[in-house]
Specification:
This protein is an alpha/beta fold and about 375 residues long. The protein is built from 14 helices and 14 strands. The structure holds pyridoxal-5'-phosphate (PLP).
Amino acid sequence: MRIAEPVVDEDDVRAVVEALQSGVLTGGRYTVEFEREFAKYIGVRHAVTVVNGTLALIAALYALGVREGDEVIVPCFSFIATANAVIALGARPVFADIELETYNIDPASVENLVSRRTKAIIAVHLYGHMADVERLKKIAEEEGITLIEDAAQAHGAEYKGVKAGAWGDAAAFSFYATKNMTMGEGGAVTTNRDDVAWKVKMLRDHGQEEKYLHVTFGVNLRITSMQAALGLAQLRKLDALNEARRRNAQLLNEGLRDTGLILPVEKPGYRHVYHQYVVRVDPEEVGLTRDELAERLRRLGVETAVHYPRAIPDQPLYRSLGYPPAEKICPNAATAARQVLSLPVHPKLERSDVEYVIKAVRRALGQEG
Ligand SMILES: Cc1ncc(COP(=O)(O)O)c(C=O)c1O
């Protein structure tokens, strides 16, 4: 049982081949149409595609004016790209702790970290459950700073009926191979701000307002027509794919309810899209460590993964930059890094596959029968 598998069907294949045969391999109608449809789906004025999610974050920060010497508050616990995007602009990531319930940035921790230098907060919607955007937005507004969503794992996630990607001044999406929808590689910035959309477009295409008229700084962050066509085909089935993830998560929740594992929650008002189904393994509760459970599951043919085995400040890069250990500055993130385990939840799993995962987990925990 694999931990992640992209869903690529005949419709996707046809879309890519059609784009390939269209004679316009980049910069054509496929990109325009994808951006229109994705913006409509998220519920924002603009979606601007770029080559991947990391560059979507960098472009969003850049467009919001983050520069050398600025501080950006980011969660201690995320994929490294969230923090590295800040470093790419010469700014300094300031690490906030997470809430253990959802693994997302804790607004109370953010409040304590705002300084004169703070320019922005990045809220990561980890595993497909949105961060507490309402409180974060309020903090950002009160402090006169910007809110950026890292929605790389949250296509279609919602809070109060408003989608991830529509809450902040800007949001970054990834369309990497294993995301809830994919282009193979790809990314997008969504925003309601015309100025931000314009700056991202300029950064993406050499600052050209017209051909060979370079009005501002830019590089090349463009995607191909084939990526855009694949994105369009994937977007059409995103809701169905997310529903399949939610169904699988529901089965896992029911099957693992009384095992002692700490199961993922969907807080009231939120729509979780289960990019990952993540349990927490507390050895005091279940009598074995996360790594022991993972090894037993591997032997039973169930692939698992750890997202992520180190809090970002504990990565060698951040240690070398002088950050203190996560245990000191974000103890919840340190606990999560020790205890989280992702189980298979992807849409290709049949009901019987999920039932097998449940049986295997119970067996690994010595609880079968
Ligand atoms: C939370 C988060 N942020 C950023 C990224 C970066 O996206 P990409 O791999 O498309 O550069 C990813 C995914 O890989 C991610 O999971």
